[in-house]
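Worked example 2:
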Amino acid sequence: MRTRFTAVLLAYLCVPAWASDSGWLTYSPDSLAAGRDAVERQRPEIMPAYRALVEEADEALRAPLYSVVDKTQLPASGDRHDYFSFAPYWWPNPDTEDGLPYVRRDGEYNEATKSDATDKQRMIDFAKDVHALGLAYYYTGQRAYAEKAARQVVNWFVDPDTRMNPNMRYAQAIPGRVDGRDIGIIDSRMLIRVADAIELIRPADVLTASESARIQDWYREFLTWLLTSENGVEEGKADNNHGTWYDAQVVAFALFTGEDGIARRQLQVTRERIAEHFDGQGKQKEELERTRPWHYTNFNLEAYQLLARYGEKLGEDIWGHGAKGRSLREGFEFVADHASKGKDTWSFKELHEFEASDALANMLAAARAYDDPRLDRVASLLARQSPEDINLLLFPPGQRP
């Protein structure tokens, strides 16, 4: 491992700065440059995360190409190219012979929904690998990472034999109840990571002009589907994390396809959500009523911090937005308070264990966005507890916008 790491680091040191980072979506060029500088200097608080990234990317080099056509069950359409998944919190009915219709057990994950029969785990693996490959290319300059990422995205979006149709019509189906649901759109949030990776590998010139155009066309068609389909419109009305993650997808994919006007309009919806999602103490009522309130509180904040960074790109302030005595900042401060004090101060009933580390990415993002020593301290505390978390490369401690 040491030999491999040394070789990669030496290769990184020879990589010139990219000519332009203007197409980046989620990532700040300054933040990633600070992370790369920290790697160059071999700062001890960054190197475990860097080694973890390289290890993950090396595994991704060995992974097969992913495609929705590889599932063993078909959606109601009968078209293997349509994404298909089952709702994760729904289980066979114990009161019927055939198990139908399925029944809901909130927070209890049915692992059978992540089998090869459907596409959910496949999309997770695809996005995770492409994301790691894109970041590894940026941090090491090793062309092999960009080449594998390119092969993956061409297989998923371009090749007519393996491409996914640009819709989520059959996402989170419930056996015996429905063929797909609007809330299944949350599965495709993973494609934000993929768009980020595509931008990161662009300087490697590993995608042809035709391939790049067809990938953009895919995202453009998918964005249109999100904005105009019945499922998309209904998901946009959701008053919990589903609505926020819908916004994050619309804005990210609009930016990726050059539709800045759509992105700005959706960010206005995001502003309106803030007053509805948070109370004056920064609590999120809809998320705190779940069986996993700490997880869902942070899950919703994750979407908000993505949206706030897209706002930075467009000159739209989301980080500082407040209305009706409520603000996004208070939401981060509420989490920071409990992340620093631990589970003994968390009064909400949890189906599973309270893990302070769930807040790391949000605390790093908030520490970067707000000039607040307390947020800095909480982010640093969680970072020391999870030194291999790749988010440390995305938000180097102490870095400001």
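The longest strand covers residues 170-173. Residues 293-314 form the longest helix (22 residues).
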